Structure formats: C-alpha cells, structure tokens
Amino acid sequence: MSLYTVYVTRGALREIKDLPGQMRHRVKRAIDELANTPQPSDSKVVELPEELGFDVTLCRLRLDKWRIVYAVTESQKIIDVLAVRKRPPYDYGDLQALLSEIQ
Q1: Contacts for 81-86 with beta carbons within 8 Å, 24 or more apart?
Q2: Which sequence spans correspond to the domains of the chain?
Q3: Domain 5-100 has what CATH class?
C-alpha cells in the first residue's frame, strides 16, 4: 500500500505523452515511486516565495536533462505532479500558474 496518493495534472500528462519513449517510461516509473518515497535522495526542494501563500512543499526530481516538478501536501498525504520539463531552458518561472491548478 502506498503512503501517498499521486495525481498528475492534465498539463503534466500531456508533457509525459510527448516525451521520447525511453524517457517516458523512466518518468512514469519515477512518478510511481513517489507514492512511497515523496522526496527521494536525488530530489530537491524548490523555494517558494512566501507571498504566494501555498501550503505545499514544492520539489523537483532530476532525470538526465528532464525535471519532474511536483507538490507534496503532507497534511493530506497527496503528491501533485505539476510538470515534466527539459532543463535548460526551463527556469521555473511559471510556478504560480502550475500551483494554481491544484488549489
């Protein structure tokens, strides 16, 4: 049984579908593993400006040049996968818009 419930936003689902085959499988596996390990050792917390007022921990998980951006809501044991983006050029400039999808 999983410790967390994992949801994937529509936008992130579209991004996953557009990934190259091998990377798509790696991303899906990594997302599945988040249900038991919400902050794996190779993930990092992304600092949120306090004025945004979101009560989540925003994280990113690196897979080669790709980043899985997700939010962890500890109180409800929920993980929301917000985006799967290539870095560079992704600069996390749309975090507020991504987070508004889960509020």
Answers
A1: 81/6, 81/7, 81/8, 81/9, 81/12, 81/31, 81/34, 82/9, 82/11, 82/12, 83/9, 83/11, 83/12, 83/15, 84/12, 84/15, 84/16, 84/19, 84/27, 85/15
A2: 5-100
A3: alpha beta
